[in-house]
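Q: Here's a chain of 164 amino acids. Please give me its 3D structure as tokens.
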Amino acid sequence: MSLTVKKGDITRVVCDAVVNPANSLGYMGGGVAGVIKRVGGLEIEKEAVSKAPIPVGSAVATTAGLLPCRFVIHAPTMEKPAMRTSVEKVRRATRAAFVVAKKLGLKSIAFPGMGTGVGGVDTRDAARVMVDVAREYLGDFDEIVFVDVNEDMVDAWREEVSRL
């Protein structure tokens, strides 16, 4: 099992699933969701919306469209688009993504920073809870990747992972 942290574009990660820090309605307008939709295709959002509402603390898998992975796992950190969120909702969304990936029998999963954009959660707080949850699933996956374009997010994950 490996836990990897890197700076980069989640839409370029080759893995079984990438995680979208979604909203409960499934709309993919801005932030990471918007990038996933632009690169992967409109069908990702269309399928996510068809599965809505997706409560915070749960997650759904959809097609990955043109992305180099099999699925996008939509794990809401907020109820409506562009809402502020909390560290606890980031924890619940991260866990929900792992639960869905495990149910699907996936072996590799990539996460961006969860709740750190419009959600307003501090990168250090998000990193702490995301790594805490990932620790629970280390034996279930061959590879867990934390990837973000934000250097502060990457540095925060590296600090947390160094404590494992």
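Q: Can you summarize the key feature?
A: The CA atoms of residues 12 and 114 lie 18 Å apart.
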